[in-house]
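User: Look at the shape:
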Amino acid sequence: MTLMNVLVDFARTGRIGPLHCGMPLAEAEDLLGPGRPHPAIVMRGPDIDGYPYSWDGLRLVVTQRQVSGLCIDLFPGSTTKLPPLVLPESETYEATVLREELISALDIAGCLHEVNRGLTFGSQSSILTQPADVCAIFSLPGRHNDVPHLDRHYLGVMHKHTLP
């Protein structure tokens, strides 16, 4: 399994492996191990809503102790990690995904997508997949990103959120 496989599957299904919006946080932690809670959760307690728990490049947003959002964060020009449950047999992976590469992979997989006009502006572009409603946000790299093409859009985050 590759990172691109994980991204395309997420875009098509709205799930990251067995992880999905609506599942109890306790179930997600049983699968992933304990996550790193956002500092607001540490300070105010586990009943505060809308803050993420993190597992390296994976974030789960929690509302009423249920997963209300799934996010994969990428840092173009570097490597990062996803939990083995999400990307087996990979300590780290190359986190540089060109917009054209992801769109081509979605097209090959038959995953419908459209421009997300609300998040496409300036040096940022976004797509929304159908029917899973997964949002992918791309941007031009900054000075700190070690990428081959400074004039092309790279994937920064893919996410799905639901209302509790």
User: Anything to note?
Assistant: The first strand starts at residue 36 and ends at 37.
